[in-house]
Write a structure and sequence with these properties.
alpha/beta; 19 helices; about 35% helix
Length: about 475
């Protein structure tokens, strides 16, 4: 198949990019691994909206707003391949991009003049002692199951971590009548003081600040027990999690728990941009790598754009505007943008994006990523796929491994089914701490195709019709 624009990911950025590009007259193919559009933020929104599910009430108005976005995308006329996995992106000398995708046991071949990567973010792994026990999972994963199936863990349920998603999910659980035994807030003391210098700029994003205030008030009104300044968190149990132990304000506390949900923020998903050797930068405030983008949203690889949280964490509304900007810039590049109206639309989207990103420095300062991850040692599992411990990573550093790729050769960390998604940042942080360097100097895994597991049958079954 040939198309003007291939978009990878059907979340807020991908859907907006597709609809906007179609308005400009481009041929568009949107590819997504999920069976329905919406991404993580609006997962299962069409089903919940059409069935008038009770989920719409407790998940909140921001979630419900996704129904109109999905409807706009569906009406755009863009080609849509759901339940389809991109496992390779290849750059051709002529400038076209080749995508190899797996769907229904067959590999399909797509050529595109331009590509928008809208694969969003992933939760930062939280490797605490006992995090591999059944019953321990991320808040994002639990929220996915809640949105798509209406299922939730058995009580007693404990939420632990820091940041807006922890707050949001606790409020959603309370609104849904899901009992939460406790919230363990790992945010370090002094959040307001850290955020104060960034407040004047953040006022441009006053709507986001207002939402945060409402969530804080709702959590307080819920009377869910909250433990502040939590440190040294552990999940305890034999065959599954049974208890949670931690320190709060200098005191050791132990709680019963059938389920422990963890969250320490989200980070860009770098696999595709790493695969095609886009330039990346270490973001010290968010403690993650992200691709370097122009104000057009273009990477260092011409014709490849990133829109949404995959290029830097900003949230759903910021992702939408980033998707719109990328689509309009691509349309202009292909000679399909009406001027000057198109230029005005780009300027408006950039203004909106700046306003939505204005609150980001405040959030980064108030809810800093955990520095303790880089100091991990002992038998805490880092690479779940290959069962590699923190001590083993430090041992590889002591044996001369300067970075993740050499540690991979020593330990096989990053060679499992997740291709390093669950251990990549943690391995970088531990190696940086071991060598006394910054993570930027240590680097990240070198990503090779296939970026996700494919079967031999899928590799062999190339659909020549495409």
């Amino acid at each position: 198949m040939r198309t003007d624009l291939a978009i990878i990911g059907a979340g807020p950025a991908g859907m907006e990019a597709a609809a906007t590009a179609r308005e400009c007259g481009l041929s568009v193919l949107l590819i997504d691994e999920q069976p329905e559009p919406g991404g993580q933020i609006w997962r299962a929104i069409e089903r919940n909206a059409s069935e008038r599910s009770d989920n719409l009430s407790f998940l909140g108005p921001d979630y419900a707003a996704g129904a109109a976005k999905a409807e706009r995308f569906r009406a755009s006329g863009a080609s849509y391949w759901p339940s389809t996995m991109v496992w390779h992106l290849d750059l051709q000398e002529a400038g076209n991009k080749t995508l190899l995708v797996a769907c229904d046991g067959v590999t399909r071949h797509v050529e595109a003049r331009s590509v928008v990567i809208a694969t969003g973010a992933m939760e930062r792994p939280v490797p605490i002692p006992g995090w591999t026990l059944p019953g321990v999972m991320s808040i994002g994963a639990a929220q996915t199951v809640l949105k798509s199936s209406g299922l939730y863990p058995q009580a007693p349920l404990v939420l632990a971590g820091s940041g807006p998603l922890l707050l949001l999910f606790a409020v959603q659980c309370h609104a849904a009548g899901i009992p939460v035994a406790a919230v363990l807030d790992t945010t370090p003391p002094g959040a307001m003081i850290r955020g104060l210098p960034h407040l004047p700029k953040a006022l441009f994003g006053w709507r986001t600040l207002l939402k945060g205030r409402r969530l804080t008030q709702a959590l307080s009104a819920s009377r869910i027990p909250i433990h502040r300044h939590v440190q040294k968190l552990e999940a305890l149990g034999t065959d599954c999690v049974e208890r949670v132990r931690f320190m709060s304000d200098g005191k050791t506390v132990e709680l019963e728990a059938t389920a422990l949900l963890l969250h320490e923020g989200v980070v860009p998903n770098p696999q595709l941009t790493r695969l095609i050797s886009c330039e990346h930068r270490w973001n010290a405030a968010q403690r993650c790598f992200h691709p370097i983008l122009s104000d057009r949203g273009e990477t260092s690889v011409p014709g490849v754009f990133v829109a949404g949280d995959g290029g830097g964490i900003g949230g759903a509304m910021a992702a939408e505007n980033a998707g719109r900007i990328a689509a309009l810039e691509i349309a202009a590049e292909h000679g399909a943008l009406n001027r000057p109206s198109g230029d005005i639309e780009i300027a408006k989207a950039r203004d909106n994006l700046r306003a939505q990103m204005a609150v980001r420095p405040l959030l980064d300062a108030m809810y800093p990523p955990p520095r303790w991850i880089g100091r991990l040692d002992g038998d805490v599992t880092i690479c779940r796929c290959e069962e590699v411990s923190a001590a083993a990573v430090r041992g590889a550093a002591a044996d001369g491994a300067p970075g993740p790729n050499q540690a991979k050769a020593f330990l096989r960390a990053g060679m499992g089914p997740c291709q390093g998604r669950m251990c990549g940042l943690t391995v970088t942080e531990i190696l940086a701490d071991s060598h006394g360097k910054e993570p930027e100097a240590i680097g990240y895994y070198r990503i090779r195709p296939p970026i996700k597991p494919v079967t031999v049958g899928e590799l062999a079954a190339l659909d020549g019709a495409d």
